[in-house]
Amino acid sequence: MILDSGDTAWMLISTALVILMTIPGLALFYGGLIRRENVLNTMFLSFVTFAIVSILWFVYGYDLAFGVNALGGFIGSLTNPLFGGFLESKTLSTYAPTIPTGLFAIFQMTFAAITVALISGAVVERLKFASWLAFVPIWLTVVYLPVSHWVWGGGFLAQLGVLDFAGGIVVHLTSGIAALALVLVLGARKDSKLLPHHLGYSVIGAGILWFGWFGFNAGSALSAGNLAVSAMIVTNISAAVGMLAWMLMDKIKTGKPTLLGALSGVIAGLASITPAAGYVNIPAAIIIGFFAAIFAYTAVSWLKPRLGYDDALDVFGIHGVCGVTGAIAIGIFASPLINSVTTGGILFGNFHLILVQLLAVIVVGIYAFVMTWVIAKIIDKIIGLRVEERHEIQGLDVNLHEESGYRLS
Amino acid sequence: MKKIIAIIRPDKLEVVKNALEEIGCHGMTVKDVKGRGRQLGITESYRGHDYRIDILPKTEIEIVTKDEDVEDIVQTIVETAKTGDIGDGKIFVSPVEEVIRIRTGERGDKAI
Fold first, then answer.
1. What's the ipTM?
2. pLDDT band for position A249 (50/70/90)?
3. Into how many domains does chain B fold?
4. Which end of chain B has less neighbouring CB within 10 Å, N or C?
5. Residue range A41-54: mean pLDDT, rounded
């Protein structure tokens, strides 16, 4: 194969788009939803995560995720630490034969970064900053790198035929489940309300996320062709349907459509179409976006208060639930007419696919939950996960960072 | 000299300010404030959860004036800020001991 400049240009742009999702997209989306006293800490978690993952990805992360199978397909082998030789040898990627290996690697880096940053939404307003700095590299190494190898790097789930186009399992399920495990160890905030201090930030953040998601999903075609176009269209439709579905739930349940609800529905639609974006058509995307928003609404408004966990910004309720929804929906709607890598789901008479999708969801879900819980326990023992009680009450910005988001003069 | 503090609905500021200007009352200090009285609260709803918001945003107008103008100003504010519903706000009048204009050092009524 030879390098295709069209594919390479599109993947460079896609990579930049996905970077924009974490910084500042996610930082703004989360930053608007918390108390004003914690706005800087909340935004900081996304930014610092991006920096840490950026470095570790090229020190050893890429190899462990996408290197040759080691330990029976559990993880990739570390053969080129510090991305040794790839830039100099100008090789093309074995995963995307028309673009440079380095481009595939940095595109994948942006996925690793946003996955870890997503988790931060669950633990805001009471997690020690130092604990987060410890959590990011450990969780990346112990959970993200193996799981991405299993599904995307030729590991054992990939060999079983599991499909995950842009990360419903690798990104949204792992981050959602990790969020749940982490808050169970961390405990609830003293005041666990969701009263956004500045929804305008979240509007900008959600807009950037929606925009960046085209790099995420259409970029996961790894080329600039029909598959990218198809992924872009179903991504957009699912987001739009998710938004309207959540507004409908708002109207039915509390009487008025809310803007935060609409934004949450957008994220639900986007997260749920993510695994399916390269395998399904428009009717499937409409169904996926609609049900994902209903499921997510139910998880955050009904399930969360009943179970009592304090997933502050609903990382599990939205990303976890919608990642699973999309991953399983592939087993129903996947179409060989959209993507020839699959022979199709139930609609095409194949019942095998939905079973491997379910298996992947269960295996990854259990693995992510158990490992995150253990990591959280260990960090809690050594550093302590929670800030001091008075710091939590006064706010983290002044106490952990000695700065404040809103100064009068 | 008297100080008038009027706590009104934020959306009434424009009409109150214009009416005061018509009766010759220009000087004022305006603040965004929060508080509560008999208007017990409103409901806000985020991601399917209802919250009672019981400290509500209001606008406070502070005016220092000559004794003889107090009644006119108070009347104007009452007329223009009133909707008749709970939550229209309150007016407080209190004595002021001294007023000094920083630029000239003038004191008393002349300095208002």
1. 0.83
2. very high
3. 1
4. C
5. 98
Distance CA(A48)–CA(A134), nearest Å, equals 11
DSSP secondary structure string, A210-279? HHHHHHHHTGGGSSSSHHHHHHHHHHHHHHHHHHHHHHHHHHHHTSS--HHHHHHHHHHHHHHHTTTTTT
Estimate the crossing angle of helix A101-123 against helix A129-139, to 10 degrees.
Answer: 140
Say if residue B39's pLDDT is above 80: no
The pTM of this model reads 0.91
- What average pLDDT does the segment A209-213 reach? 98
Cis check for the bond before B57: say yes or no (omega within 30 of 0): no
Q: Model confidence over A160-183: pLDDT tens digits?
A: 999 999 999 999 999 999 999 999
Provide CB contacts within 8 A for A215, sequence distance 6+. Answer: A13, A14, A15, A16, A17, A18, A20, A21
B52 touches chain A (CB under 8 A): no
Assess if residue B98 is contained within a domain.
yes
Test the B interface: residue of A195, A243, A252, A406 with most B CBs within 10 Å? A195
The alpha carbon of residue B29 is apart from the nearest alpha carbon of chain A, in Å, by 17
Residue A210 is which amino acid? Answer: W
- Is residue B24 included in any domain, yes or no? yes
Domain CATH for B15: 3.30.70.120
Q: Are A166 and A152 in contact (CB under 8 A)?
A: no
Q: What is the mean pLDDT of chain A?
A: 97
Q: How far apart are CA A262 and CA A268, in angstroms?
A: 10
Which H or E element spans position B52? strand B49-53
Res A14: pLDDT? 98
User: Is B47 part of any domain?
Assistant: no
Task: Please indicate, yes or no, if residue B78 is contained in any of the structural domains.
Answer: yes
CATH architecture classification, A5-401: Orthogonal Bundle (1.10)
Query: Closest residue of B to A300, CA-based?
Result: B47
Inter-residue contact A188 to A307 (CB < 8 Å): no
- Residue A26 to residue B12: CA distance in whole angstroms: 37
Q: What is the pLDDT of residue A120?
A: 98
Name the percent of chain B lying above pLDDT 70: 100
Tell me the residue range of the domain where B27 lies: 2-32+58-111
Chain position carrying tokens 């579905």: A245
